[in-house]
Design a protein that fits this description.
Length: 65
């Protein structure tokens, strides 16, 4: 659960649909393969849209595991 968004410096939105059943490791792999960006960079938020327009999944590394 995201505690607060004050430390977020960059936000990336993945274009297109993502299977929101994917877990953390699969989403990390998508980020690394498609962008070359490390998903473990603090202050970076990744947004994934699903098939339904009212559903999103957010991936943020907060640095504390």
């Amino acid at each position: 659960m995201l505690r607060e968004a004050t430390g977020i410096r960059k936000i990336y939105l993945r274009a297109g649909r993502t299977d929101l059943r994917k877990g953390i490791y699969s989403l990390q792999a998508i980020i690394q393969m498609e962008t070359g960006i490390s998903p473990l960079e603090e202050g970076t938020m990744f947004l994934f849209c699903g098939k339904r327009p009212d559903r999103i999944k957010i991936l943020v590394f907060e640095g504390d595991g």
